[in-house]
Amino acid sequence: MNVIRSEKIESIEEDNNLAAVSEVEAGIRDFVRNDVAYLRRPAASAVSGTDTSPESSTETTVNNVNSLIQRVAGTSLAEIENLISELESLRDLLHAEGQRVQREISGYAQLSQAAMKSTRMIADNVSQWKRAADGLRNG
Predict the structure, then answer these.
(1) What are the tens digits of pLDDT across the range 76-123?
(2) Which pLDDT tens digit goes with each residue over 42-82?
(3) CB 20 within 8 A of CB 80
C-alpha cells in the first residue's frame, strides 16, 4: 500500500513539475513575444511616433519578469512546504514506530527472562527428583 502511495505521490510530483515547466516556458514565450519585441524594431516605434518609451517598456518587462519569477517560486515553495510536511509526518511515524519496537523488545526480554527462570526451576526440580529416585534405588 505504501508503494502505491509512493507511486501516486511521484506521479503527482511529476505532474506538478511538468506544469511548472510548462508555465515557465509559456511565461518566457510571452516575455519574448511581448516585452522584448520592441528591441527588434526600435526604428519602427520611433518612426510611428508612438508614446511607448524604452523606460516604460523596460519597467513593464521587469514587472513581467518579476511576476513570472514569483509564480514559479510560489509553485516551488509550495512543493517544498508539502515535502517538509510529509517529512515531518514521516519523522513522527518513525518515532512512534521506534517506541513501539522498543516496547516489543522490552516485552520480549521480560518474557525471555521469565522463560529462563522457569526452565531453571524445572531443571532443578527434575535433578532433585532424579537424586531422590537414585537414592531410593540405591538405598
Answers:
(1) 888 889 999 999 999 999 999 999 999 999 999 999 999 999 999 999
(2) 544 444 445 556 677 788 888 888 888 887 777 788 888 99
(3) no
Q: How far apart, in Å, are the Cα atoms of 124 and each of 3, 65, 71, 72, 129?
A: 53, 87, 79, 77, 9
Choose among 4, 2, 18, 5: nearest CA to 79. 18
Task: Tell me the longest C-alpha to C-alpha distance in the chain.
Answer: 135
Pairwise CA distance, residues 97 & 86, whole Å: 16
Q: What does the domain layout of the chain look like in residue ranges?
A: 2-104
Is this structure's pTM higher than 0.70?
no
Is the distance from CB of 57 to CB of 38 less than 8 angstroms? Answer: yes
3-state SS class at 113: helix
Strand (E) or helix (H) holding 74: helix 54-138
The residue among 98 and 11 whose pLDDT is bigger is 98
Residues 27 and 71: beta-carbon distance below 8 Å: yes
Calculate the CA 98 to chain-centre distance.
Answer: 19
